[in-house]
Specification:
Layout lengths: L1 E6 L8 E5 L4 E4 L10 H4 L13 E3 L5 H4 L2 H6 L5 E5 H31 L13 H8 L2 E4 L5 E2 L4 E7 L7 E9 L2 E7 L20 E7 L10 H17 L4 E4 L5 H14 L7 E4 L2 H12 L6 H8 L10 E3 L3 H6 L7 E5 L9 H8 L6 E4 L8 H6 L4 E4 L2 E4 L3 E4 L9 H11 E10 L3 H14 L3 E3 L6 E3 L1
Parallel strand pairs: 3-4, 4-5, 5-6, 10-11, 11-20, 12-15, 12-16, 13-14, 13-15, 16-19, 20-21
Antiparallel strand pairs: 1-2, 1-22, 2-3, 7-8, 8-9, 9-10, 17-18
Bound molecules: zinc ion (ZN) (2 copies).
Length: about 475
Amino acid sequence: MNLSFLGGAGQVTGSQYLVETGSTRFLVDCGFNQGTDDRGEINRHPFAFDPGSMDFVLLTHAHLDHCGLLPRLVREGFRGKIHCTGATLDLATIVLLDSAKIQEEDARFEERRYRRNRLPGPPPGPIYTILQAEQALARFEPHAYEEPVSLSPEVAVRFLDAGHILGAASLDIALTEEGVERRLAFSGDLGRHDRPILNDPVLPARAEVAVLESTYGARTHDPWDETLANFQETIVSTLGRGGHILIPSFTIGRVQDVLYCLSEMARSGQLGGAQVFVDSPMAAESTEAFLRHQEYFDAETRKRMASGRSPFEFPGLHFTDSLEESMALNDMEEPFIVIAGAGMCSGGRIRHHLHHHLEHPQDEILIVGYQAEETLGHEIVSGAENVEIFNQPHEVRAHVTYLDGFSAHAGQNGLVDWATKVVGQGQRLFLVHGEQDSLAALSALLTDQLQAEVTVPARGDSFAV
Ligand SMILES: [Zn+2]
Ligand SMILES: [Zn+2]
């Protein structure tokens, strides 16, 4: 077989891997490149293959950096099926329609800018439209975890619970070439053990060739119990001094983790009756998707649901939809908790809340997610004394707490555990989906521990394996 690393190699975003056997060609993921540098333009670069020649796509999960370019693939001639789990289909619908909407808005903005400044045209159009996202979604075919899916005479796959976000899968692929069956494993984005709502990751069978993500290849997270205790303590002490709590959050997965923690606090009286607002229409939609897919929950969460203690419906919880409802929060004196996107404060409603609360010493900015460099969130967690929001300077006088333990990615120990169990002696392991320092650290560690060939491919590299 031939394995090509067309994206998500030497970097975290833009996952795109091409597998070719005797007569079958397929992609694993086809994600958006995200970042503050010039990576955005990459999303318009021609594909390294003819989309019409691809037999099918296997999609590991609904994050934009894994599914974001699928509408372009379909627009440019792909006519096969996109296989994934049922929850991934539901969440990818939210993610892709939102992405298409943002692109249509950006394109309209550019059109006006070109016209106003009399720039030589034409302005760049949207990478894809809402209609094109819908056409891509029509090609999705959902499968249950563990179900053996035969895709061609040569290829069969099982989607295994990766424990990363709802519906996220690792792939256990059986490839038959010239009568010989071999296994190819993709970790996808790999989650962690003992996290709320989701099951622990399920490992693929031993594989001849494996591809492992490396986001946290260089470090290990704080334990969950410690994170939860810090979270509770921060909330209780802020409410105790009459402060407001702002939680910037990614809208798929992280919002639900935060609600899980808050629901128990609300029920045990630790919130003292304070209201909780989820101020993001997309977070409301993704929470509904969670409620439609309770079969993906772990045993503890299912037990809570069955006994009427849903983490997503509790006294004092509100989902604000309209901008008017969102703005009304600015006038609320009594302590409250608001969860809003964007997760790195780079856009979205959280900026309005920061604008109103950042200068209040009794308030709290509780950061529960990764903050990439050059984002407002990164400035805030790095201890900046002054930041700019809506072109206005703001002194940071609110408390700031950063909790690393909410991460949905396995730490170094989880990645090593996966590699040791999946990669056999003398087999091949490729490390992807990480920044250079993480890839280097994990590669050194695994080369030492496994009797296998460990490779860190660069974007565009191809291997006959
Ligand atoms: Zn992911
Ligand atoms: Zn990812």
